[in-house]
Design goal:
It comes from Micromonospora maritima. InterPro entries: AP_endonuc_2, AP_endonuc_F2_Zn_BS, Xyl_isomerase-like_sf, Xyl_isomerase-like_TIM-brl. Belongs to the AP endonuclease 2 family. The protein is of the alpha/beta class. It has nine helices and ten strands. α4 packs parallel to α5 and α5 runs parallel beside α7. Bound molecules: zinc ion (ZN).
């Protein structure tokens, strides 16, 4: 099981080495901005690295919304990030499930997701796996609760789509962690990546506040059980910089190795 961390994008391989990580996730552009990613000068070095790379799409992307002025640029930006992520040899592009506004029909949001994949299909399809991530908050989210996730997967039909399970988001979003992997896989058939995070917020608080694995409101043993059951690569998106994340990675290696 490859274990790594979300890191600063300046030199992801140096960040991986500093944490003894086998995988890294990073942004290719400002996560709060709409700028298309620029080609990276270190693309060749990244492609040939021994470290598995994952790219996180900007948070501003919301392909589900009924608001044209957000949805249309979101589709375009997502495809741009997919192209740029493939250029550095990333194994997947992670994007949040998104939401519709209060009063809007969530069914249209799911169909907007389908149209996003159809839009990408018009230019040959996404050049790498797109992993939709579950989110913690909101009442109109496409991928907070598993009943919504099931409707999203129905809408996506035959499109090739992956899933990234964030443990903090699931817990804070109100999904019990016990048995979660089986319930998710019954819907998606797959978990491509785990975002392993403890939660500062309480169960079902809707708060997206990550904590280190042995801190927070989730029993670390339960966290480890979910990660072990998923059997997917792991990225910690935890605080504390190099030291905090290196400790989380070492903790996971110890826990997962001990039971192997
Ligand atoms: Zn996450």
């Amino acid at each position: 099981m490859r274990i790594g961390a979300h890191v600063d994008p300046t030199d992801p391989l140096a960040e991986a080495a500093a944490r003894d990580a086998e995988a890294v996730q990073f942004f290719l552009a400002d996560p709060q901005g709409w700028k298309a990613p620029k080609p990276r000068e270190d693309a060749e070095r990244l492609r040939s690295a021994d470290v598995d790379l994952y790219v996180h799409a900007p948070y501003v992307i919301n392909v589900a919304t009924l608001n044209n002025r957000i949805r249309i640029p979101s589709r375009k930006l997502l495809l741009g990030h997919a192209t740029a992520a493939a250029a550095v040899g990333a194994k997947g592009l992670i994007v949040h499930g998104g939401h519709v506004n209060a009063g809007d029909d969530l069914a249209v949001g799911f169909d907007n997701w389908r149209k996003t994949f159809a839009y990408a299909g018009d230019s040959g399809g996404f050049p790498l796996p797109v992993l939709i991530e579950n989110t913690a908050g909101g009442d109109n989210a496409c991928a907070r609760h598993l009943d919504a996730l099931a409707r999203l997967w129905d809408a996506l039909g035959d499109h090739e789509v992956g899933f990234c399970l964030d443990t903090c988001h699931a817990y804070a979003g109100g999904e019990e962690l016990l048995g979660l992997v089986d319930r998710v896989k019954a819907i998606t058939g797959r978990i491509d990546l785990i975002h392993a995070n403890n939660s500062k917020g309480a169960f079902n608080s809707g708060q997206d506040r990550h904590d280190n694995l042995t801190g927070g409101t989730i029993d670390p043993e339960l966290l480890v059980a979910v990660i072990r059951a998923a059997g997917a690569p792991v990225i910690v998106e935890t605080p504390g910089g190099v030291d905090g994340q290196a400790a989380d990675i070492a903790f996971l290696r110890g826990q997962l190795g001990a039971a192997a």
